[in-house]
Amino acid sequence: MRRMAIQYDIRHTTVYRYSKPVSFGLHRVMFRPRDSHDLRVLATDLQVSPEASTRLIQDPYSNSVALVQPLGEATELRIVCSFTIEHVPPSQRDLLTLDPSAEFLPFAYSVQERLDLEHYLRPHHDDDTEGTLIRWAHQFLRTDQPNSTREVLTRMNAHIGQSFEYKARDEEGTQTPLETLALGSGSCRDYALLMMEATRRLGIATRFVSGYLYDAALDTAAQAQPPGAGEAVTGAGSTHAWLQAYLPGVGWLAFDPTNNLMGSGQLIRVGVARDPSLAAPISGSWYGDAEAYEGLEASVVVSRRQG
Questions:
Q1: Which intervals hold domain Transglutaminase-like (predicted)?
Q2: Hey, what CATH topology would domain 92-278 get?
Q3: Average pLDDT per 10 consecutive residues for the chain, totaling 307 residues
Q4: Which CATH class is domain 6-88+282-304?
């Protein structure tokens, strides 16, 4: 049975403001959604003010990156990314068809898979000398019955959003998993990193995903909401972050602990990486008086096309 493709228009605007003219270094802009069998990019546009030279490359993860060099001095740097995509939401069969060898934890990847997944299996935050994180991860394992891989991930995904306080942060960087546990709060990227590092300690390969989240409640152009899109979600209106776990038989499966979503059609991926620091939507430098920086404004509008 053919699933219905949904088209979205997305506009991502980022504005940096300064009290006096400054000059700019090279900026890396990761804005183009990743094409695959379930997501097709129909149109893209990138507008930069002041005038800039731009070229496109692929990074080591095959993310599309625009290298933007603003020309001259200005008191404002404005980067507007617009695109139209066609997205096919995953079916239940896509989400549930695990290879029998991976149905229960612990499981072993094949030799070839381990070679390709090495960087996604290895924990990248090794400051946990007392084993706090692995003890936290073990609370989702049962001792009285076999541990279903899918159920363990589902329990952890739900627990994070329900037990931690969501706090959006505009500043760059991500809390370490231990900081998130100690604070009991974090942003979407903090939640994603916590679950990534915890599941890696259970032997599951994970990677960080940055992108966008469709929220029908914010879509003023929508005449009818798609099935399942009426639930309130957190993180729409700006860039969003989640993770993917690699499960044999399913492949890379999305988990969004901020909203307790799994494999959702509301998640529109842009960049993937082994660590959040490698998938920043925009990064760059500027030169001038250190006191000149006034702040950053960013907004994301995701609208579902009708018809």
A1: 180-259
A2: C8orf32 fold (3.10.620)
A3: 81 96 96 90 96 96 96 96 91 81 96 96 85 95 94 97 89 89 95 97 97 84 50 77 96 95 90 94 94 93 86
A4: mainly beta
